From TrEMBL:
Family from the record: Belongs to the glycosyl hydrolase 28 family.
Stretch forming the signal peptide: 1-15
Protein name: Polygalacturonase-like
Organism encoding this protein: Solanum pennellii (Tomato)
Active-site residues from the entry: H228
InterPro entries, alphabetized: Glyco_hydro_28 (IPR000743), PbH1 (IPR006626), Pectin_lyas_fold (IPR012334), Pectin_lyase_fold/virulence (IPR011050)
Superkingdom classification of source: Eukaryota
Keyword set includes Secreted: yes
Pfam families assigned: Glyco_hydro_28
PANTHER family: PTHR31375
Keywords: Cell wall, Cell wall biogenesis/degradation, Glycosidase, Hydrolase, Secreted, Signal
Subcellular location: Secreted, Cell wall
């Protein structure tokens, strides 16, 4: 007599989870056909799903001319990018503010290890567009996580975070040539509770730029280079521009134009940058490791006036490494509103040719403790 044992295997799934693959909606994934409409159809169904929806871009190469993914959505959304998404090189298509944009969404996750290729060389230096599109825009987003994404050769900013709250970017890899214009890695404005960590950014402009209306920004374990460093500003273009509560820690800057920078326009409106901390930073052949510039004028055609942006409560702690220039610390503050409460502690910056570095100060009030290399030039409160 033979006995047969029936083995039952139960696979438990959450009935509220569903995958919306762009391939199922007809995406060609040939790197030539515009899949924008297909992506949008898949997104709209995912956005309507009352549960956890995964909007999936599988392995393959996709061409997207441009798309905006609108919310609000019924449930939470995971955007899983596994393949390569390429932007158009046709200036009649890409002359707009964004390439891929997510707007008015709560609870968003973007992951998957895929690559966004902005094909920016087609736009850099070209006069056809008044503005060039950023690669990914996050606008009016509440609660988002972006991790494991590669962005290469954006036409303008790689990531633009605007009017958003509680957004975390980690393990992102951003690459563009050192001479690519305005290709900021991560641009933050009018946003709060933003975190960037464990990421590598090498680009043609600021690795991270923190603009007006930003607060509670935390940046850690970021390697930056090439690029223009980690910058706050420019501020003062419009009245009452404020940046506050920024903490940059455990970062490395390699062969960048600037290190830690705060900048305001040479002729500015009233504004403020306050409660800023830069600490545990390594500089490797950085042109301007520590810089506050209140006479910022890249075009050199500005009507130079006194800046009305108040910079105060700024701490540089444990900043060490090599400077490409002899002036390793440069505080060029406004003659009408001097920089207040500037704290330097354990600054150890040497010239990479082993020459002594110097500090340059104008209208900068504060104090220095610990290692002073270069020697501090800050004025004390009693001297001011």
């Amino acid at each position: 007599m033979q006995f047969f044992i029936l083995s039952l295997v139960f696979v438990c799934t959450n009935a509220d989870d569903k995958i919306f693959s762009v391939i199922s909606y007809g995406a060609k994934a040939d790197g030539v056909t515009d899949d924008s409409e297909v992506f949008l159809k898949a997104w709209m169904d995912a956005c309507k799903w009352n549960g956890e929806a995964t909007f999936l871009i599988p392995l393959g190469t996709y061409m997207i001319y441009g798309v905006t993914f609108f919310g609000p959505c019924k449930g939470s959304l995971i955007v899983k990018i596994q393949g390569v998404i390429k932007a158009s090189t046709n200036p009649n298509i890409f002359c707009k503010g964004s390439w891929i944009s997510f707007e008015h969404i709560n609870n968003l996750e973007i992951e998957g290890g895929g690559t966004l290729d902005g094909q920016g060389a087609s736009a850099w230096g070209q006069p056809q567009c008044a503005t060039r599109p950023y690669t990914i825009g996050l606008s009016s987003i509440q609660n988002a996580i972006v991790h494991g994404i590669h962005s290469i050769n954006s036409k303008m900013f790689h990531f633009d975070i605007y009017n958003s709250n509680n957004v975390t970017l980690s393990h992102v890899h951003i690459i563009a040539p050192s001479d690519s214009p305005n290709t900021d890695g991560i641009h933050i404005s009018l946003s709060s509770n933003i975190r960037v960590f464990d990421s590598n950014i090498g680009t043609g402009d600021d690795c991270i730029s923190i603009f007006a209306g930003s607060q509670n920004v935390n940046i850690s374990r970021v390697t930056c280079g090439p690029g223009h460093g980690i910058s706050i500003g420019s501020l003062g273009n419009k009245p009452n521009e404020v940046v506050k509560d920024v903490h940059v820690k455990n970062c490395t800057l390699i062969a960048t134009q600037n290190g830690m920078r705060i900048k305001t326009w040479a002729s500015s409106n009233v504004g403020e940058a306050t409660n800023i901390y830069f600490e545990d930073i390594i500089m490797d052949k950085v042109d301007n490791p520590i810089i506050i510039d209140q006479y910022y004028c890249p075009s050199h055609t500005c009507n130079i006036k006194k800046s009305l942006v108040q910079i105060k409560d700024v701490t540089f702690n444990n900043i060490r490494g090599t400077s490409n220039s002899l002036v390793a610390v440069n505080f060029n503050c406004s003659s009408s509103l001097s920089c207040q409460i500037i704290n330097l502690n354990d600054i150890d910056l040497i010239n990479y040719n082993t020459k002594p570095t110097i500090a340059s100060c104008a209208n900068a009030i504060g104090h220095a403790t610990g290692i002073e290399l270069p020697p501090s030039c800050l004025k004390s409160v009693l001297e001011s």
